[in-house]
Amino acid sequence: MSSKIPVRFLDAGLGTTLESPPHNAKFKADSSLWSSDFLITSPDTLSGVHRAFVEAGADVLLTATYQASLEGFAATGKAGTLGSASDRQSKGSLAQDHSATYNKEEAGVVMRRAVALAKEACSSSQYAASKSGSKRVALSLGAYGATMQPSTEYSGDYEPEHMRTVEGLHHWHEVRLSIFRDDEPTWNDVDFVSFETLPVLQEVQAVRRVMAQHNTAEHSREWWISCVFPNDDLTLPDGSPVSAVVEAMLTDRGDQGQRPWGIGINCTDIKKLDKLLRQYEAAAQTILDTDSTQETSAKRAQWPWLVTYPDGAQGSVYNTESQQWEIDPEMKAKGPQRPWHEELAEIITKTAERGHWKGILVGGCCKTMPEDIGKLRSQMAAIDSDAYYLESG
């Protein structure tokens, strides 16, 4: 091993944390916003969850904008559609006419609020204060399918027809990104841009083109693409194999758009993660390691960061129709699962030991909470490894 690589920690499942005590949010199946609705009903609750992740040891916070879209806010009453009972009781002034919905300007104001909340949490918590300047904000931009009702980021069934094209997805992502990028104070608070849970190859291609146009030198931000792999054969929901996914992410041709700072996998069963990461590496090697005479360190400099945040469902399966987690009978029959943080720490250690990635950003997705990030960080700190170091904290 020529040198250790840095490991940073991402936060975890915002929506499922909000569903858990003490927040007990009840998300409706027809909600267009999911956790973004708390930007309307209870921004203080979001702030508290962000701070909890920072206190647990997260280095990077994702904003509460995963499902946020102009279409979603246009379909949402200004009182919001959800929140815990205590939120509604304490915010009676929000109980107004649900027929009053958001126009583009009003929606933009609410969506940008998410960046400010995450930024404040990065600097205001006791833990962050002891690690001055080390906590960062990632603008969360979920797949187009995450904004559909019911959501289709796990199936890739996009409607209408033009949203199954690179051009249609390019325009949609460009409009949403501009809500944040065109507001200078907001963009100044963004450290990373995250395109998450992408289920179709055309969307990977579309966001690269968007960033080529808008992630220019004076406004440049590090950014990543992360895909979801719900299929047992380890393909995207649209059937694309990992080799095609990584090629779409990394191929460096003029018409392919900007190469991302990081690539990865999210919202995917942890049991699939090790095999998927090995397939990612094999595919990336064919693109990046073209000079067999280069030293390992020189090759690594060509590689992106790996960004991975698997779910912590531990035998549960998400039903996109009901938007509820349901126990998988086959997994239940197998008995107790290995603790998520232990399994993930082992996977990340082995990945670092293979020596490809420039760095690793690791966290959790659905059904993982602040305590899981704390346990993961402690587990990895306790491992005596020559392959990685924890960059902060």
Q: What is the helix/strand order? A: EHHHEHHHHEHHEHEHEHHEEEHHEHE
> Given the helix and strand composition, which structural class is it?
alpha/beta
Determine the fraction of residues in helical runs and give it as a percent range: 40-55%
Write down the overall geometry.
globular
Could you give a short account of the major beta sheet?
9 strands, parallel
Number of contiguous helices: 16
Unreliable sequence segments: 83-97
* Proportion of strand residues: 5-15%
Measure the end-to-end span: 24 Å
Q: Give me the Rg, rounded.
A: 20 Å
* Largest beta sheet: strand ordering: 2-3-4-5-6-7-10-1-11
Q: Please count the beta strands (DSSP E, at least 2 residues each).
A: 11
The average pLDDT value, as a whole number, equals 87
Task: Please give a handful of descriptors for the protein shown.
9-stranded parallel beta sheet; two-stranded antiparallel ribbon; alpha/beta; 393 residues; single chain
Tell me what you see in this structure.
This protein is of the alpha/beta class. 41% of the residues lie in helices and 13% in strands. The protein has helices spanning 14-19, 38-41, 43-56, 70-74, 85-90, 104-124, 126-130, 166-181, 184-188, 201-214, 242-250, 270-288, 296-300, 329-333, 340-354, 370-382, and strands at residues 5-9, 60-62, 136-142, 192-198, 222-227, 262-266, 305-309, 316-319, 324-327, 360-362, 388-390. Strands 2-3-4-5-6-7-10-1-11 form a nine-stranded parallel sheet. β4 (192-198), α10 (201-214) and β5 (222-227) form a beta-alpha-beta unit. α8 packs across α10 (201-214) and α12 runs parallel beside α15. The two termini are 24 Å apart. The model is unreliable at 83-97 (pLDDT under 50).
